[in-house]
Amino acid sequence: MTSFRFSRFMLFAGLAFIYLPMLILVIYSFNASRLVTVWGGWSTKWYAGLLDNTQLMNAVLRSLEIASYTAIAATALGTLAALVLTRIGQFKGRTLFGGMVTAPLVMPEVITGLSLLLLFVAMAQLIGWPVERGLMTIWIAHTTFCTAYVSVIVSARLREVDRSMEEAAMDLGAKPWKVFFLITLPMIAPSLAAGAMMSFALSLDDLVLASFVSGPGSTTLPMEIFSAVRMGVKPEINAIASLILLFISIITFLLWFFTRRAEEKRKKAMHKFKTYKG
């Protein structure tokens, strides 16, 4: 009983440590005072003031655009890498390929950012591209970083997938691409959604990589906030952070809801298939 109570206490303490600062941030986004450490009553003027803060809103839209493109590209590339690592047997260079795919997971972001910066500078000198660093270079850097996370998540799911349905479909004459899109893809859909969500969040949150590979006119939201907080936290930052938390929470809930429905349908289909096969 004592152990159970201690475990429950540690659980709630850990949740409070993670979510209590977010709750405080949301509350202080409604603070009427310009001083974020002094409570001046409830007000929504900072949310209305965001519409006049063109620089901050442009940084938000820029970060959301990059994060969306990163989620799509990283999910596609990470899934292909996971298929190579799990569905193709031993081939020459497999260990090297697996190490290169997962290298960004253990490599410090400072090293990754510096390496990408040197790469872009060398490419600009050799082939004239990129002409200048901006959204494209940030997107490439974020995709390189997030692909490793997607490949790990999807690989774990692919190793758990029952391949009997895939083999049965191919025995009945289905082409490999058709088996992938109609059978494999629905079964790994939850891992794809998880990888896309993680890629989106990592890209939206990234400061180090963007600082190395960005250029004039391509400031992201983390860079904008980092430069602003050195002069003191402004109430508008609390407001925009609260809106991002709301946006991420809604997207996460919707993805969880539809993923859960898809998983339930998959389990029912698997049960019917095993019953019919038996």
From TrEMBL:
From the record, give the transmembrane residue ranges. 9-30, 66-85, 106-127, 139-158, 179-202, 237-258
Pfam families assigned to the protein according to its UniProt record, in alphabetical order? BPD_transp_1
**What range(s) does the ABC transmembrane type-1 domain occupy?**
60-256
Q: Which domain of life is it from?
A: Bacteria
Q: InterPro entries recorded for this chain?
A: Bact_Polyamine_Transport (IPR051789), MetI-like (IPR000515), MetI-like_sf (IPR035906)
| SUPFAM superfamilies per UniProt | MetI-like
Keywords (A to Z) from UniProt? Cell membrane, Membrane, Transmembrane, Transmembrane helix, Transport
- Xref: Gene3D superfamilies: MetI-like (1.10.3720.10)
Coiled coil regions, renumbered to chain: none
| UniProt topology in membrane | Multi-pass membrane protein
> What does the UniProt entry say about where the protein is found?
Cell membrane
Q: Which PROSITE patterns match?
A: ABC_TM1
**PANTHER family tied to this protein:** PUTRESCINE TRANSPORT SYSTEM PERMEASE PROTEIN POTI
State the similarity comment: Belongs to the binding-protein-dependent transport system permease family. CysTW subfamily.
The entry's protein name is Putrescine ABC transporter permease
Q: Which organism is it from?
A: Marinospirillum insulare
What is the primary gene name for this protein?
Answer: potI
